[in-house]
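User: Can you model how uridine 5'-triphosphate sits in this protein?
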Amino acid sequence: MPATTPITKAVIPAAGLGTRFLPATKAMPKEMLPVVDRPAIQYVVAEAARAGLDNVLVITGRSKRALEDHFDRVPTLEAALEEKGDEKKLSAVREASCLGDIHYVRQRDPKGLGHAVLCAERHVGDEPFAVLLGDDLIDERDELLGEMIRVQQATGGSVVALMEVPAEAISAYGCADVTPVEGESYVQVHGLVEKPAPEDAPSNLAIIGRYVLHPAVFEVLKETGPGRGGEIQLTDALQTLAKREGEGGGVYGVVFRGRRYDTGDKLSYLKAVVTLASERDDLGPELRSWLGEFVAEF
Ligand code: UTP
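Assistant: Here's the modeled complex, given as structure tokens:
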């Protein structure tokens, strides 16, 4: 496979149990939680589309119905809005179904992110592809995925997104051991550790939820046994690829310095909703002024 095989496919794993968000995630994937007025996953599908990836595969779990329905057309609702002449709501309803070509595959058992990515093998085939986690939102004003795609095309390896975090926060993330690449804005990744204790962390660079992967990852995942938490970890497979030379080997990192919103746990989710809502023209002015009064009362 030449290093320049163009990237057209995005994989969005959404089959996790979402235990940090129970009971809201009892009958609904956490990727469907609303962030202001759209489910989190819609922002992620839109991000993929902006980067030119309009062939999207969503890895679904036990409650896939809500996901599939959201990206589908709803003729009855659309007809009702058309009859009322409510163009604004009509275009909001249609937005999700116009984002690209969306496919679904079932992960029968939630055996970890690595296992979820392996479920994409048949759909992806022998091409590099992107993986976007549905509970990690990147501000649309900041560029990340496009840069990662460029680095994959230049190196022919796999690319992870990294972000500097305070030392005490690193144990919530995968952490990368990196060196700079001369003359380039990206770094070479030599090793990855899943959720290290701060004293064992090789850096303050956390892996965030964007990857552009060489298809060699599939063979590696098949041989990757359960790791931390008994789950098949994508980080463990990337660790193997980081040490590999030749075809499909090498892992690189793009350090993201823009705005990222984590929606996977309750507190981060609340912060994400307030931040994004307060920046919107339709909600921001009133929300900001109310927030000011609310905070002043404490
Ligand atoms: P997380 O570890 O954040 O998700 O996985 P989780 O397991 O659903 O959440 P908690 O910790 O129990 O609250 C990262 C991403 O990988 C997906 C999740 O849906 C999420 O987007 N995932 C995880 C799968 O698709 N399958 C899995 O087996 C595990």
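A couple of observations from the model: The pocket of uridine 5'-triphosphate is lined by residues 13-21, 59, 107, 110-113, 115-116, 133-135, 264 (CB under 6 Å). Residues 139 and 259 are 5 Å apart (CA to CA).
User: Helpful, thanks.
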